[in-house]
Fold these 3 entries.
Entry 1:
Amino acid sequence: MNTILPLAMLLATTIRPIWAQDQFSGEWSPLHHEDYNERIPGPDLGDFAGLPINDSARLFAESWNASRLTLQEHQCRVHVSPYIYHGPLHLRIWEEKDPYTQELIAIKNYISTYEQTRTIWMDGRPHPPDYAAHTFMGFSTGKWEGNILTVDTTHIKQGWARRNGLPESDQATMTEHFLRHGNIMTHVTILSDPVYLTQPLIRTDDFLLDEKELGGWLWPCEYVEEILNRPRGDVPNYLPGQNPFLYEYADNHHLPHAAVMGGASTMYPEYRNVLGTAKIESAPALEAVRASSAENSELHIMPVQGNVYMLVGAGGNITVQVGSMGVLLVDSGFAQLSGKVIAAIRTLSDKPIHYIINTHVHPDHVGGNENLVKTSGGSAREVELVNTPGETAAHSVQIIAHQNVFDRMSVPPAGQKAYPESAWPTDTYLGVEKEVYFNGEAIQMFHPPAAHTDGDTIAFFRRSDVISAGDIFVTDGYPIIDLKNGGSLQGEINGLNQILDLAIPAHHEEGGTYIIPGHGRLCDEFDVLEYRDMVTIVRDRIQAMIKRGLTLDQIKAARPTLDYDPRYDKPGGFWTASMFVEAAYKSLTQTK
């Protein structure tokens, strides 16, 4: 008796926390009494009150034109996980357990809005690396803190902080707390965004447990052509200072303009004391947040889909296709990292490299050509012809690029050293397209004239549904318009639009075709879309200022990239916002 009692007490103290963890499984409906106008009718244009935004977020929202949602790629965009619970939805929650141990693996959420299934991993797994793809729901891990389920989420796509144009960047992270009180569940969201917020943004939502199954669980979306004959690449936006609706909400409700323009001070009750004299809050300048960059001495391989992989860390990203016929690469990285590149490829295949496609001439993309071809018997330029070109190709490496890449590698500008002949392309094309068939897959190569350079190639793996974009698309900075090597701003935009034409999303503007950028993380169509919009909007602003007769210095002083600088500027780095603006200006004003 005396032995059993202490044992029972020990078991009770050990098991009680597990019993105390509230179960959230069931079907829930949102209670909209809180923030009703924002959550159901929708927030007014120009109402940014109560949000700790900075000047960049404010300019982004001021420039936002609701007509942008008529663009096909924007029509099915999903509200990201920090915002989607705030709107009209039905929510189903259930647990996923190991069938043998019955240990909890994950807590699943099905959100009827845009048919989103969200997974909260409960098994202790780590978050993905920085170069992994982002999704609208992000990657979430959870833990119990007493009766509270606490969730941390990373890898979230760009979305809304408020759906009247106020942005949330793809660098944002979120912490959530789920609490249950009988049939009421409270959901607390803490959003941190180093790009657009000066303080964490905290929201709460309440849900009511439903006793019977709800209807309206499906929200399918297929985009349509809403506006006929829209100019190709058009991105509706308002130039700074020209949004006619910016102060409509404030004027209709007789509010000071400063009161609705947001900023951390508008979050607190004390702000009422200064309403009469308030000025639009200029948030402290944020240090630019460099997008996740894997340019270091450690190489990583990430499966993309099909038989295509992304190799990160060798300079520019390298695309690797493997199969029974051998290895095909898009780009070769820096020369000094070739040993590590070869070792990484050997973890995927022991077969020789047969093709290297060069996307452009820069050394972080072609520098490894010479070293890599040596591992497979040399380039086709060096191997002695055996019977037929096909027989020769079986024992050599073909380096494919646009003719302009060959010209610049073989005859460099004055004062620069030529690449070794073994690194030169062995198979070039002059037009806008070339194709090869390798490892059971068609690979199409497209040349957008005068984009990042004048020799760019976009490689499209048709069966795997993967696009290798080169430096036409990057995620870690503004696009580099290499004027000396024939690049142009409009060609850059045309190249991004060509990638959008090739890419097809799988469901609600996510997944489907994956895009490997020249630098940065794995992406899909939506990521390219937001980048294309950014470059186009900046072009429109610079063009408007050129028409007004502003000089380059005046345009730089006007900061036409302000709303994107915290995300893409690299002060003191290789390519800054100022350099991008200058290249864009020169490109737009150069003699045709």
Entry 2:
Amino acid sequence: MKKTFTGNTRLFLCISGAIIAIALIMQIVGVGMNLGIDFTGGSILSYSVGENYDVNDVITILQSAGYNDQPTKAAPSAASIALQQELAAQAAEATEEVAEETAEAAEETAEAAEETAEAAEETAEAVEETAEAVEETAEEAAEEFKPMLNMDKSGIKADGLTDLQIRLKLVDATVGMEETIANAVKSVVSGAEQTGYRTATNLEVSDLGYDLSYAGGNIIEFRMGADFDKAAVETAVKAALDEGGYNLTEIQFVKYDAEAEAAAKAAEAEEEAAEETGEAAAEETEEAEEAEEDEEEVEETGTDLRILLNMDDVTSQVRSILEREMSAKYPNFRFISVDHVSAIAGRDLLSNAVKALLIAFVCMLIYIAIRFSPLSGAAALFALVHDILIMCAFMVFFRFAFQVNSSFIAAILTIVGYSINNTIIIFDRIRENRKRPGMSQLPMMDVVEVSVSSTLARTINTTLTTLITLVCLFIFGVSSIKEFAFPLIIGMLAGTYSSVLLSGQVWAMWDEKLVAKRAAKSAK
């Protein structure tokens, strides 16, 4: 009998062993799997771009900062849509104000020109001088900041994915800062109660009416209960932060009235709703409200405390480079949020994944042992471990292109379920063929050969139909989908390889050795 599938079993085992050994050596010498922040810990940065953009621009900026992490394009979230609408409204208001100021300036200039030609000449000279000064300032700014990106947007694909998510292996320098500040505030005002702690954007800070130069950071708020000594609180908090080693570029302490601020926001929301239905408030009322807001900006009132912090850490430095470069090409590029992932969570994820695999292996072993034989169960588990190791090996080989995150764990669990299906089909056919007349006396390898041959078409068809979908996902999917599709493709191929060329053959080899041992024992 021609042994197409069982004649080179040792060679196929050596090929798999070589692949796994090379990957293991690479892992040992430090060029192994590129673990993502799900396992190492880091930061997830979310941005709203406001228009279609080229993700390669983001990659270029990150690589200039020494990071090879893959950014992900995403559909605009609710927060992103609201942010862009607010930016559009602000731009419209600014345009109207500029138009009004320009018209007023034009009227004043016309009146001055009518009154005296000399004044017009002086104005023209002043305008020329101003234009020259503006040009000089622009030239100086251009010399100081030279964008690294190509400003041409003509080749950008319109895919509607106008949000950006970046997963970076960055250390969270704010760990423990919230507790440190809270303890410092309560050391001065014992009745202080913390009411909020969040990551803020520069847009939120400007909307609150604070320093526009603030670049974003963290905001922590307290209800103090009564009037308090702001200077004493500042001193205590700064001393605690210095002692804790927190490097801040800016910190602001603001007294405010939380209830009044909430009421003002509610009134503003009602006013916007009224404007949308055509019931806009009178201009005098708006001017009065603006005057009140300006007055509140100057004079701090209330018994609540808001502390604004801007960290000088690695995350902030990467954000600064990214936001400066992207804003130069995409004017509405805005930061949305940053989420920090602890390495402890990654260890828990890995631990739970290993537990899930062990439980699945035990259950499969019990089922196959009952359905077929314990030796068949051991051979099936050998094939599953082979598939998992091959997937890990290729993630090592392609570490420059793919990170190992939670999606890889999902891919492993998926392949375990899919691969065992093909293996059980072959074992079932082996059991049927062993009962057929004339085949019970054949060597186990010959029975495996016939069984694999008879199930080959089914195995190939099911594998190809699944691979077509996975390949399409890999080609047309975003980077996060590719990180899931790539190990699945490798696992599908490895599972087919082990089912057709290894699982039944390994079972036959073990069975023949076991029979030989029993025969030798009986002879003795």
Entry 3:
Amino acid sequence: MSENHTNQPEKKSKARTNPQAPAAGAAKIAAVSTSEGAAPSAERDAREYRLFMSLDLDNSGAILREDIEQAFISEGINLDDYRLRETAQALRRIPRGTPIDYETFCAIIRPSILLVERTLQGNVIIRDFEGFCGDIQRLYDAVLPNTSGRVAQYIPQLARVDPEQLAVAVCTIDGQRFAVGDAGVDFCVQSCCKPINYCAALELRGEAFVHAHVGREPSGRSFNEIALNDAGKPHNPLINAGAIMCSALLRQPDEVYLADRFDHIMAQWQALTGGERAKFNNAVYLSEKTTADRNFALAYFMRENKAFPPGTDLEETLEFYFQCCSIEVNAAQMATVAATLANGGICPTSGERVFSTKTVQNCLSLMYSCGMYDFSGEFAFAIGLPAKSGVGGALMIVVPNVMGICTWSPRLDKMGNSGRGIDFCKRLVEAFNFHNYDTLTGHTSKKDPRISRVQAKAESVNELIWAASKGDVGAIQRMDVRGIPLDGADYDGRTALHLAAAEGRHRLVAWLLEHGVSASPRDRWGNTPLDDAHQQRHPAVIAALERVGAVRGDSVAPLTVEPPVPDAVQATQKESEMINELIWAASMGELRAIQRMIARGADLEGADYDRRTPLHLAAAEGHVAIVKFLIDQRVGLSPRDRWGFCPLDDATRHDHPAVAALLREHGGLSGATLV
């Protein structure tokens, strides 16, 4: 979803509770919070004030309850999140439409200050959650027409499930949640119980004891094959024999009744889902039990080979296994279970540690190699993520350190996996760099949802261009090896060759030309690198460019303003990792991204390698709302870029009369008369 302010509903007018609006808005906050040795005033904590100003769009000194609530919703954090309990209660006591001043805001957020700060700064794991949800919705829509396969037939109750149903749910390690389709419909977990039982067995009996009775290698055979490994043990915990063994290992030392064991595993499911109770489908359990000849045969075969620990009651163990398969959850709950595994055993929606990190590491290793029946090797190769499927149609996918995903659709392929689930996973890793080996060094066209759209734009070219402006040939060479295009352009159409030429980096200019970059790319104004070299008087660069046939463009002549236009200052490049991201956000009309950067302490008056500011780019692109926002934040209205142009010049040259009028109304000036 777009973050363009022009697509957002207009904010309601706010009564000013503070007659003196902040003197210089967010542009001045950075000076308080980032200048070495500077301290905030006695009345204001700099970090809290940045957060307040990120929501105070018109710099009136007041925000609304709705502003705070929307900030969380847009990041995928539910207001019923346990971490927001006190803050949510305080918000509910404030009537909608009532102005909230800085002091009240601080009182509301302090019980949840770190989560509030991370949310307003956009420092949750999925940076552009609304956009990510839109992508997940599109993947859902793409797989919905897939009607291949058929529901499981060998368990009568499963054969009666509506095959048309489809659900996709996501839960991140920061508790961001999204679901689409039939995500509230309960289904039986079936084999998705196997990794949970394995984890519970490891926690209860320890790794050495568990793996004295069950192996950890793919079997290379059908999931219900009557076979053991060379040591007379089940091959791994995720095939039927291994799952039956784990059910036996879950017998607690003080266990009196089988019901105690089932209560224990149901408590584990409740903890994994963040406190939501799982259900039990007795009809499926009875159906499982009456069609379980193969599982009984497996159990007797293991007993014949003395695989079970002493004292194992075979029938109780099998009944417990069938009960575990008959547990019911919905897709949203299963996504939280997967997110708990992605989060190293800590449930992101409750903060409770359910399993140890070592237990989860062992489980994910086996899910990666053995979790998808006879399709496990192909899934690991093509999808590259730990996962577990069940014949009920569920597919639990773990993106370690990022999120858990659940798909549910009852039609199964010939391997026993959900056809739509596999289709979704293939599309997922085609779109996002989630495959286990997508992190290998190299350029990729896949999206990384851990960085925002704006950050992705900034990182794709600005590092290259900034290095070029400094003449760092070695850095450019390393980028070339990584597959980064050397002719990438920034928001103004400026390339590495433009900046190398403008700064007189003749050695780098020669290297870029030798490596095939275009000699005459044109920027926003029709300016070529040869124009830059002439304007900045670099004869060696001019000679290098002319030797390869470079031409001049349609640019205007460089400005000379004498005497300097009153109140117009030359923008100064300020070294900041956020400045290029901020300028990209202004050029893209991404107000929400700018808000996040204000919360992080960005300086709205920073400038890039061409001394271009956010106001220059917002004016050049005609983003009236962004220009108005920057004016309200009291930024300087007439900074001059490398060529002496001010934002008003940009608005005029690119035919944005509304922006030009707005700048003039508030005192914006032109750098000089245009040629």
